[in-house]
């Protein structure tokens, strides 16, 4: 029995992740229904490599679309969908798959994750439907942050309205909540210029179109120009069809409020939506099993971990240090050791500094030093005093007691007020 | 009464006296440092990573080597100048300063602009390839071969001495932190491509082997990619990796995975030698 662990369903598709969707389509076409089942999982950290889709075949884990396809092919666990391809088509298959996982993945990152409007209206609600309670607050921002980082080099940061000056708090927003007298003294909200009226997607339209065109026109040209046969390599379903479906379906079917990819595709490449619809129509009656319940302890640990990752660079660095250096296992790497040593040294220095600071005088206070009279005797009162002194002998007076406490030291008055 | 005393910016007398004591003087402009590019160049200069005194040879950086090769293919004669990222206006090498006869400064060219420049100034014919497969196979290089290259040079500890020789200045003060920065940057770059939380070495090398096999199939029995009559940009791009991976003047560790795997693809190795003979 092949157990396929995938991200949960969204937008009427079997999974929210393109590779998960692709491998579901692949196994649907390649394996008999009784031979495999889909487990919507939603927490990649439990699988050994922290990545979905993951295939568990009698305890052997495989991750990622291409790797799973190679694994089932190598062990003859199901039909090989690529067996009828010629050598040149096999090579093309590899190249176009790379094209998808590079360009289409970036396009998907921009559409579903970077664009703030699409993220908040579509992607985030989709995640919140299947993620369990506390991680639903911590995991999606991480996924988005990673996607944002991946598309950084495209220079489309303005799609994230956090950076959009027109969406920031403006004097004209919320005027109605202010009292009438205040409102009159505020400047009247200026009329918006055309530029301000446009959404960030419209402003970046030329670049977005270029990006979309670079990515998708390649596949449209691969489809036969007419006819009912909507397969990229002409004959039957190949693994490339499945992968292309995974990406294109999410790009096309996600009900986003700023559907620039969908608009472009429907205007320029109407064959692609047909391809997606055709593949989707075939993808029925999937062997879904009930989603794995995560234990409370596990959810708690995951919440804590993701909270740290969400935090500032400090904690994230610590955990990433563990993740990066190792091949699969999560033991503490050299980086982490260095980091911990550094953190210890830094905290020791800071602790010493704090201690030293506490022993200093508060700034700005006057230090008052006074010395008690050295010899408390009556001789200071002139001759009469010395007579009395010799008559009474040394007297243990109040002053004497005080003197013995602080004859050498100094009393520092820290509470004196300087005004 | 001096005429300027009535103007509203009248300078108070003491200040005026002070400035008279220290009269303003404009010195003649300093000479530019001798390494700075001359405003007039008979030949364009390409700034690349190269070992000192080794300018005629292929650069050791794939991206530099790609453009160096392409300019040679196009027959554009350039001066190679060993440099580093700090010299580049975009922060990345290579960049090209076109030849100029007047002292008006021309902007440095990078990436696709070098291609345009080479095509405009080509003395040999460059084949134009109109194929969508070209885009797909270029993605294959970026997505499958580049990560394996990055891993084997920057992260694999057995190639640390090579990395040190190529990219890290000899000063021990800088070496450690620079090495660390390079490793981190390479890791981030690889993870961006693979979209996994881990770097999986075996997977990277397996992917690169698959990519080499696909390229070999694409080349088939042709001399150049896409059946062209002479080499083009894509040939240069493949060459920039195949040349360096099997370059014996770079002290790769013995029996490195990437070297072993590429050496098995005889057609690609032959293409590598063919393009080298064509250009050098």
TrEMBL record, chain A:
Cited InterPro entries: Metaxin_GST, Mito_Protein_Transport_Metaxin, Sam37/metaxin_N
Keyword 4Fe-4S: no
Tree of life domain: Eukaryota
Location of the Metaxin glutathione S-transferase domain: 213-278
Region forming the signal peptide: none
Keywords: Membrane, Mitochondrion, Mitochondrion outer membrane, Protein transport, Transport
Residue span, Mitochondrial outer membrane transport complex Sam37/metaxin N-terminal domain: 20-144
Cellular compartment(s): Mitochondrion outer membrane
Official protein name in the record: Mitochondrial outer membrane transport complex Sam37/metaxin N-terminal domain-containing protein
Entry annotated with the keyword Mitochondrion: yes
Lineage of the species this protein comes from: Eukaryota, Fungi, Dikarya, Ascomycota, Pezizomycotina
UniProtKB/TrEMBL annotation, chain B:
Protein name per its UniProtKB record: Thioredoxin-like fold domain-containing protein
Pfam families according to UniProt: GST_C_6, GST_N_4
Domain of life where this protein originates: Eukaryota
Alphabetized PANTHER family for the sequence: METAXIN RELATED (PTHR12289), OUTER MEMBRANE PROTEIN (SAM35), PUTATIVE (AFU_ORTHOLOGUE AFUA_1G13180)-RELATED (PTHR12289:SF44)
Domain (Thioredoxin-like fold): residue spans on this chain: 62-159
Boundaries of every Metaxin glutathione S-transferase domain copy: 211-275
Annotated source species: Bionectria ochroleuca (Gliocladium roseum)
């Amino acid at each position: 029995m092949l157990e396929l662990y995938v991200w949960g369903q969204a937008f009427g598709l079997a999974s929210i992740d393109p590779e998960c969707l692709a491998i579901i389509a692949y196994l649907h076409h390649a394996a008999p229904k009784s031979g495999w089942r889909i487990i919507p999982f939603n927490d990649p950290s439990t699988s050994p490599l922290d990545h979905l889709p993951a295939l568990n075949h009698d305890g052997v884990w495989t991750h990622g679309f291409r790797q799973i396809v190679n694994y089932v092919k190598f062990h003859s666990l199901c039909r090989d969908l690529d067996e009828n391809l010629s050598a040149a088509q096999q090579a093309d298959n590899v190249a176009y798959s790379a094209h998808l996982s590079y360009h289409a993945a970036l396009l998907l990152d921009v559409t579903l994750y970077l664009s703030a409007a699409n993220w908040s209206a579509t992607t985030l609600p989709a995640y919140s439907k299947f993620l369990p309670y506390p991680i639903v607050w911590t995991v999606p921002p991480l996924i988005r942050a990673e996607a944002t980082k991946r598309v950084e080099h495209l220079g489309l940061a303005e799609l994230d309205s956090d950076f959009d000056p027109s969406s920031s708090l403006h004097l004209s927003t919320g005027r109605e909540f202010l009292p009438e007298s205040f409102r009159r003294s505020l400047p009247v909200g200026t009329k918006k210029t055309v530029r301000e009226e446009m959404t960030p997607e419209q402003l970046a339209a030329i670049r977005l179109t270029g990006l979309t065109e670079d990515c998708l026109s390649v596949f449209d040209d691969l489809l036969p120009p007419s006819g009912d046969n909507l397969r990229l390599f002409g004959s039957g379903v190949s693994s490339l069809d499945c992968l292309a479906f995974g990406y294109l379906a999410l790009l096309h079917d996600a009900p986003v409020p700023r559907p620039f990819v969908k608009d472009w595709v429907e205007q320029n490449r109407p064959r692609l939506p047909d391809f997606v619809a055709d593949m989707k129509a075939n993808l029925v009656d999937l062997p879904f099993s009930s989603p794995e319940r995560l234990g409370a302890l596990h959810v708690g640990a995951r919440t804590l971990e993701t909270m740290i990752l969400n935090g500032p660079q400090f904690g994230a660095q610590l955990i990433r240090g563990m993740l990066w250096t190792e091949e699969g296992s999560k033991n503490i790497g050299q980086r982490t050791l260095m980091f911990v040593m550094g953190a210890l040294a830094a905290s020791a220095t800071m602790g010493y500094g704090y201690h030293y600071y506490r022993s200093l005088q508060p700034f700005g206070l006057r230090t008052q030093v006074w010395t008690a009279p050295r010899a408390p005797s009556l001789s200071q009162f002139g001759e009469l005093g010395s007579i009395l002194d010799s008559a009474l002998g040394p007297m243990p007076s109040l002053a004497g007691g005080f003197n013995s406490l602080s004859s050498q030291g100094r009393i520092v008055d820290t509470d004196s007020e300087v005004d | 009464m001096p005429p300027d005393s009535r103007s509203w910016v009248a300078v108070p007398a003491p200040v005026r006296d002070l400035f008279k004591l220290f009269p303003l003087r404009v010195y003649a402009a300093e000479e530019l440092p001798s390494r700075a590019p001359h405003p007039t160049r008979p030949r364009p200069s390409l700034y690349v990573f190269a070992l000192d005194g080794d300018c005629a040879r292929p650069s050791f950086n794939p991206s530099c080597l790609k453009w160096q090769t392409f300019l040679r293919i196009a027959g554009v004669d350039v001066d190679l100048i060993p440099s580093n990222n700090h010299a580049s206006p975009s922060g990345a090498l290579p960049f090209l300063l076109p030849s100029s006869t007047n002292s008006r400064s021309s902007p440095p060219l990078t990436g696709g602009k070098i291609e345009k420049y080479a095509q405009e100034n080509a003395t040999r014919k460059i084949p134009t390839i109109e194929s969508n497969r070209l885009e797909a196979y270029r993605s294959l290089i970026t997505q499958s071969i580049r990560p394996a290259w990055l891993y084997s040079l920057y992260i694999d500890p057995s190639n640390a001495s090579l990395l040190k020789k190529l990219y890290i200045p000899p000063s021990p003060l800088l070496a450690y932190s620079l090495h660390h920065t390079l490793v981190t940057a390479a890791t981030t770059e690889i993870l961006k491509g693979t979209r996994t939380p881990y770097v999986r070495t075996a997977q990277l090398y397996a992917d690169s082997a698959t990519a080499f096999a696909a390229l070999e199939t694409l080349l088939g029995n042709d001399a150049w990619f896409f059946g062209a009559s002479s080499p083009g940009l894509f040939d240069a791009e493949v060459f920039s990796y195949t040349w360096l991976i099997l370059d014996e003047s770079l002290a790769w560790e013995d029996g490195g995975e990437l070297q072993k795997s590429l050496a098995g693809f005889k057609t690609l190795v032959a293409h590598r030698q063919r393009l080298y003979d064509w250009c050098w």
